[in-house]
Amino acid sequence: MAVVRCNQGHYYDDEKFSRCPHCGIFAGVEEKKNKNADKKGFFSAFTRTKDDSKTVAKHESNYTDNRPMEDTVTVSLESVEKAPVKKPSDDGKTIGMFSAAKGNDYVTGWLVCIDGVEKGRDFRIRHGFNWIGRDYDMDVILQCDISVSRQKHCAIVYDDRGNSFSIVPNAGNELYKNGEPIHEPEKIKTGDVIQVGMQRYEFIAFCREGREWEKE
User: Fold this and answer.
1) Taking the chain, what is the end-to-end CA distance rounded to the nearest angstrom?
2) How far is Cα 182 from Cα 60, in angstroms, rounded to an integer?
3) Is the dihedral of CA 169, 171, 106, 110 positive or negative?
4) pLDDT, tens digit, for every residue of 67-116?
5) Three-state SS at 209
6) Cα 182 → chain centroid
7) β partners of residue 141
8) Alpha carbons 156 and 140: distance in angstroms, whole number
9) d(Cα 102, Cα 95) in Å, to the nearest integer?
10) Looking at the domain 98-205, which fold is it?
11) Can you tell me the distance from the alpha carbon of 176 to that of 193, in angstroms, rounded to the nearest whole number?
C-alpha cells in the first residue's frame, strides 16, 4: 500500500483504487426521468342542462386503441418460489489484504486525547486508511469537536508492508504534528502529538519495530 496524491491534491490508497476516488470519477449516472406519461382509457365529459334534474352527455368517445399488444408472460407461483436467489457478489468490491479472520480488523495503534472535551478517551487505529471526521461512517469519529470536518478531515494510515504509520491531511483542513502544521503526508511514531480541530491526541503504536501481526 502506498499513499498517492492525484492532480487535484487528494490522497488515496493505490492498492484499493486505480484512480482518485475523490474526483468524482466513480459517480453514477443520474437516472433519466420520463417527461411524458402515457394516458390511457376512455374520456367522457358531462354537463348539466338548465333543468337540474337531467344530466345530458356532452361527448361520448368510442376510442379504440389499435396499437399492438405487448407480449405477456405468465409465471406460476411455484416457479417463483423455486427460483434460486442470487447471492450478493464481491465483484467491484475492494478486498483487504487481510480477511476479518486474518487480521484486517486487528488494532495497530491508538490515538489518546490528552487535551480537549474528549480528554482521556482512546481511538483505535487499524490496517490501511483510518479516516477521521465527525460523521458516523468515519473510522475515527470526533463528534464532539465541531471544528473537525464531517467527512475525511484527515487520515492515519498503517502500512503493513513497511510496518509504519503516516498522518495524511485532506482538503486543506488544519492539522498539526508536535505543534507544526502538516501539508503533506508525514511519518508518525509513538509519542507524537497530533492536533485535529481543537483537541490534541498522543499517538501510540502497537505495531512497531519487532512487533507486527503475522499474515496468515
Assistant:
1) 18
2) 79
3) positive
4) 555 555 555 555 444 544 444 444 443 333 444 444 578 999 999 999 99
5) coil
6) 25
7) 133
8) 9
9) 12
10) Tumour Suppressor Smad4 (2.60.200)
11) 8
Q: What letter does residue 32 receive in the DSSP assignment? A: P
Q: For residues 176-191, b (16+ Cβ closer than 10 Å) or e, as one string?
A: ebeeeebeebeebeee
- Continuous H helices in the chain: 77-82
Strand partners, 131: 155
148 is written with which cell numbers?
A: 473537525
Of 165, 177, 156, which Cα lies nearest the Cα of 208? Answer: 165
**8-12, 113-117, 187-191, range with the lowest pLDDT:** 8-12
**Contact at 8 Å (CB) between 156 and 13?**
no
Backbone angles phi, psi at 73, to 5 degrees: -125, 130
Q: Where are the domains of the chain?
A: 98-205
As to burial, measured by CB atoms within 10 angstroms (0-12 exposed, 13-18 middle, 19+ buried), residue 152 is buried
Question: Cβ(188)–Cβ(194) under 8 Å?
Answer: yes
Amino acid sitting at position 140: V
Tens of pLDDT along 106-152?
999 999 999 999 999 999 999 999 999 999 999 999 999 999 999 99
- Are 187 and 165 in contact by the 8 Å Cβ rule? The answer is yes
Using CA atoms, how far apart are residues 22 and 24, in angstroms rounded to an integer? Answer: 6
Query: Cα 20–25–29 angle (5° rounding)?
Result: 160
